[in-house]
Design brief:
Layout (H helix, E strand, L loop, with lengths): L11 E2 L12 E7 L8 E7 L2 E7 L16 H7 L8 E4 L2 E4 L2 H19 L4 E5 L7 H5 L3 H5 L5 E3 L6 H11 L7 E2 L6 E5 L3 H4 L9 H10 L3 E5 L5 H4 L3 E3 L6 H14 L12 E2 L1 H7 L5 H8 L3 H13 L3 E5 L1 H4 L4 H14 L9 E2 L7 H4 L7 E5 L6 E3 L8 H6 L8 E5 L3 H4 L3 H8 L4 E5 L12 E3 L9 E2 L9 E4 L1 E2 L12 H16 L9 H11 L12 H5 L5 E5 L15 E2 L3 H15 L7 E4 L15 H4 L6 E4 L1 H6 L7 E5 L4 E8 L7 E3 L14 H5 L26 E6 L1
Parallel strand pairs: 7-8, 7-18, 10-11, 10-14, 11-12, 13-25, 18-19, 19-20, 26-30, 27-29
Antiparallel strand pairs: 1-4, 2-3, 3-4, 5-6, 5-20, 9-15, 16-17, 21-23, 22-24, 26-31, 27-30, 28-29, 28-31
The structure holds ligand MGD (2 copies), iron/sulfur cluster and molybdenum atom.
The site of one ligand MGD has 31 residues, from α17.
Length: 725
């Protein structure tokens, strides 16, 4: 099994800048790392504008000095010769630098022309993962993209957590009322389809997760992991059970069935807040452990024991992420996870799962946007809109298939959908056919190489930061403001400034008034002052107050807040949202499908030195053995006459790849695993290091037709594949 690498890296000295002068005084700055959800505190030493070292900030009350090997890559991004620093316009196969004003005018001219010829929906927008990690992109997301008034809005949400938001909307009344596992106080953590020791937590901001899981076990708590691979997290658990990919809904339903049938349900103080729990009990009564054992691959006795232990624990929480989101039953899985926490009285209880109370109350700010479903549907496949977006699995067909409403132009903002969305090869081809494409990004990569124009924002250390999203998802209530570490280059623009300028140009052209918004910084100040720890509270938080606390502020553990925080009209929890209840039938059908002999199901795997698709251009993160390997169980290799170290053909309905095989007894027989985000060997990209460590793209095999039927979220896990010499 490939190792996860060190959980925390010591200080790293970054002496690769030849122009660093010894005369410069060393200055120490503090900020949060914004690369992943863990928001680790960093201590950065500078000599002038040169980064001397990046290490964990021991005084950050939340991350306590923890960092991972990616943190030092913030310096690599800063110094990367491939990173774009000025707008680039494509002329044939070449790129030409152009000025910002010319670029903005070109964008507006092209977009307005396409819109008047083909209508509003002819322009699609795709927003990638770093949007959530860059607060200016969030505070200014309404302006320019909003002015386009297109129904073809897409984002990485639909290759990620869309089912979780949909379930939260239906059960709790708001898509962002996401209960977070209280890992620091629980006594039983059931992890299903997540690998926090590598991902550092997701929809659970939990820096230093290894230490926190260690503490759980030290206080006598149990960690139980359900995963088709003995992941790094599973290796540290008290118990790990292999599960056949995509069958988790059955397993979770069986846990609920046991809890109901054995009268172990104890919703406690939640009882008066619940609507329609009885309907759930009735709908799930056929899912006994015995009924689901064969399909899931988990013995009935194990399922029964997990149900009893979970219900019997003084404080327990079930937590599921990518493995149960990006699969064909993502919404059912996340519904069942909420129900499990709820019926055992662990929802909204310390040591269970609780919604947070962040200093900038994003849920309150987005009160008018609680969520939505099916207000419109995609043109070709008829996939319903979820929270204002269509599933990105349909983007390629919306570009490729002619007709009224066809997409002719695309704007990508901090995204690389060619490598990150299902059937990426098809999207790659579709992008080549657009009339116009704009990318707001600082790399020429697999996606942006198709753009007519790339507008590069400042690099992470050149702008300030406040975590709007991850404070909302954190296992403690915390707040921290990170001022810019480095000076903004003279001709540089921040992401939010680019959006604002584009919005102003477009508004002017359309003859509408552009709202010149406040800067992100001022918006945060306002949010802090009017928020739960603001002027009407003891803490009196403001931006000035946070500036004076460079390591951040701890605002305490999560606390119970239901029914007050519930956003449903009657402040009750809907246990049986009708569309979820109806979808149980689909899971029922899964029960009857016996696993086919010899069939292989493809799943993904994250690696500590990767971050989705965009951090393979830094030598320190790609050095060592090639990591883009296909993990195969030795018995599956033997039955095909294959061996580890060889290469072989892996194919799915949509594509075929030559992959490097790696024998691994830690993967469930019948399952194979390939990491995503690789495949940097395409012509025209400008990522020298990544191209030399290209690997293959898992999403050339994932299938755009495989989605969770309810949410349209891509089923990136559990893709049927065949493996041949
Ligand atoms: N098969 C498979 N596919 C997956 C996944 C999986 O597990 N398996 N995971 C999915 C998940 S969870 C996610 S979130 C998606 C991610 O999908 P995407 O967001 O589409 O892909 P990223 O690799 O995160 O690409 C980020 C892009 O943003 C640029 N960028 C980085 N920082 C900034 C910034 O501050 N501003 C701007 N303007 N640009 C920036 C980078 O150069 C890069 O081009 O991938 C999904 N795809
Ligand atoms: N180092 C690193 N950290 C990251 C990222 C990264 O790319 N690299 N990406 C960030 C992002 S955008 C996100 S969304 C998070 C994701 O955070 P996680 O969800 O914790 O990360 P994954 O590694 O995708 O974990 C999914 C797990 O589900 C398992 N799995 C696959 N299919 C199934 C299934 O059908 N059932 C079950 N029960 N399990 C299954 C996989 O084996 C894997 O262990 O990580 C974030 N952190
Ligand atoms: S775990 Fe995430 S936030 Fe922490 S240092 Fe690594 S990339 Fe940055
Ligand atoms: Mo993600």
């Amino acid at each position: 099994m490939p190792s996860a690498g060190p959980a925390s890296a010591g200080p790293v000295f970054l002496g690769q800048n030849g122009d660093m002068t010894t005369q410069d005084e060393i200055v120490t700055c503090f900020r949060s790392c914004n690369l992943c959800e863990a928001i680790c505190g960093l201590e950065i030493q500078l000599a002038g504008q040169q980064i001397v070292s990046i290490k964990g900030d021991k005084q950050d009350p939340f991350s306590r000095g923890h960092i991972c090997p990616k943190a030092v890559a913030l310096a690599d991004i800063q110094n990367d010769p491939d990173r774009l620093r000025q707008p680039m316009r494509r002329v044939g196969a070449n790129w030409q630098a152009i000025g910002w004003q010319d670029a903005f005018e070109m964008v507006v001219e092209r977009l307005v022309a396409i819109r008047s010829q083909h209508g509003n929906d002819a322009i699609a927008v795709y927003q990638g993962n770093p949007n959530s990690h860059n607060y200016g992109l969030l505070t200014h997301a309404g302006g320019f993209p909003g002015l386009l008034r297109t129904r073809n809005r897409f984002s990485a949400t639909s290759v990620d957590q869309s089912p979780q938001q949909l379930v939260a909307f239906w059960m709790y009344g708001h898509q962002l009322l996401l209960p977070i596992p209280d890992v620091d106080r629980t006594n039983y953590l059931l992890v299903i389809g997540a690998n926090p020791l590598v991902s550092n937590g997701s929809l659970m901001t939990v820096p230093d997760v290894a230490k926190r899981l260690g503490a759980l076990r030290q206080r006598g708590g149990r960690l139980v992991v359900i995963d088709p691979r003995r992941s790094e997290t599973a290796s540290e658990a008290d118990a790990h059970h292999f599960i056949r990919p995509g069958t988790d809904a059955l397993f979770l339903f069986a846990l609920l069935q046991v809890i109901f049938a054995e009268n172990l349900a104890r919703p406690g103080r939640l009882a008066p807040m619940l609507r329609n729990l009885e309907q759930v009990r009735t709908a799930l009564q056929g899912f006994t452990p015995e009924a689901v054992a064969a399909a899931t691959g988990i013995a009935a006795a194990d399922i029964r024991r997990i149900a009893r232990d979970f219900a019997g624990a003084s404080r327990a929480v079930c937590y599921g992420r990518m493995g149960v989101s990006t699969q064909a039953f993502g919404s059912l899985c996340h519904w069942a996870i909420q129900l499990l926490n709820l019926v055992t009285g662990n929802l909204d209880r310390p040591g269970g799962s609780l919604v947070t109370q962040p200093a900038v109350d994003v849920v309150a700010a987005l009160k008018a946007r609680p969520g939505s479903y099916g207000r419109w549907a995609s043109r070709i496949s008829g996939r319903p809109e979820v929270n204002g977006e269509l599933p990105v699995a349909v983007l390629a067909e919306e570009i490729l298939q002619p007709g009224t409403g066809q997409v002719h132009a695309l704007i990508t903002i901090a995204g690389n959908p060619v490598l990150s969305t299902p059937n990426g090869r098809q999207l790659d081809q579709a992008l080549g056919q657009l009339e116009f494409m704009l990318a707001i990004d600082f790399y020429i990569n697999e996606t942006t190489r198709h753009a007519d124009l790339i507008l590069p924002p400042t690099a992470p250390l050149e702008h300030d930061h406040y975590d709007l999203v991850f404070n909302l998802l954190a296992v403690r209530n915390v707040a921290k403001y990170s001022p810019a570490t480095l000076t903004k280059p003279e001709d540089g623009m921040h992401d939010w400034e680019i959006l604002q300028a584009l919005g102003e140009h477009l508004a002017q052209r359309l003859g509408v008034t552009a709202k010149r918004g406040m800067s992100p910084e001022r918006l945060i100040d306002l949010g802090l002052r009017t928020g739960p720890y603001g002027r009407r509270s003891a803490q009196r938080l403001s931006l000035a107050r946070l500036r004076a606390e460079p390591h951040g502020i701890d605002l305490g553990p999560l606390s119970s807040s239901f029914p007050q925080r519930l956003a449903t009209t009657d402040q009750r929890i809907e246990c049986a949202p009708p569309l979820l209840l109806a979808d149980v039938q689909r899971a029922q059908a899964l029960l009857e499908q016996a696993p086919q002999a010899g069939q292989l199901l493809l799943i993904g795997r994250r690696q500590i030195r990767s971050n989705n698709s965009w951090m393979h251009n830094f030598p320190r993160l790609v050095k060592g053995k090639p990591r883009c390997t296909l993990l195969v169980h030795p018995s599956d290799l033997a039955s095909r006459g294959l061996a580890g170290g060889q290469s072989a053909q892996l194919s799915s309905r949509v594509g075929c790849l030559t992959v490097q095989l790696e024998a691994d007894a830690g993967i469930m027989p019948g399952t194979v695993s390939l990491p995503h985000g690789w495949g940097h060997d395409r012509p025209g990209i400008r990522l020298q290091v990544a191209a030399a460590h290209a690997g293959v793209s898992q999403n050339d095999l994932t299938d755009d037709h495989l989605v969770d039927a309810l949410s349209g979220n891509a089923a990136l896990n559990g893709v049927p594949v065949s493996l041949t010499a």
